[in-house]
Amino acid sequence: MLSARTAWIFDLDGTLAQPQHDFDAMKQQLGLPLDLPLMEGLNGLPAARRAAAWETVAAWEHALADRALAATGVHDLLEALVGRGCRVGILTRNRRDVALRTLDALGLQAHFAAADVLGRDEAAPKPAPDGILRLLRRWNAVPSDAVMVGDSVHDVGAARAAGVFGVLVGPQPTAEAVALADLVLEGLPQVA
Ligand SMILES: [Mg+2]
User: Which domains does the chain have, with CATH numbers?
Assistant: First the structure.
């Protein structure tokens, strides 16, 4: 039962915020392979090119943060969860400072303690389970208390690896993500 779960971890971009990152365009701009996720492609670059490429990506991420738009139903869902005493956190493959800036742009910062927002430098990035497990430790919670909600294969992969309930949201999920999800929903209004 989802309603019995008290520890809720959300992906940010494409989940609480409407999707706006064109990852394929950025990979093309940087000459990265299209069949690898952006972060893994960046880490595969020769050292001499890697730092500049990461800087390009960070500048792009910061610029998009200010333009972030809230996903449908996000305010109602967070108010309902916080209202019934749930813990809520963010686990993103974006940077933590960009995530905080995005939450500000969305008007959602009041719902999240800053320490409950983890980016790619605070824990091994999803689909590694590390960030989920770290938040659960902070909250004195166990995996059977928890839900991870996200729009990508990384989110439900991390949920599976951490042993928490994985909810995949979004209108056009990939087959790979659907296969790893415990529940597939069209959007946040269906979560509550
Ligand atoms: Mg996402």
Answer: 2-18+69-190 (3.40.50.1000), 23-65 (no CATH)
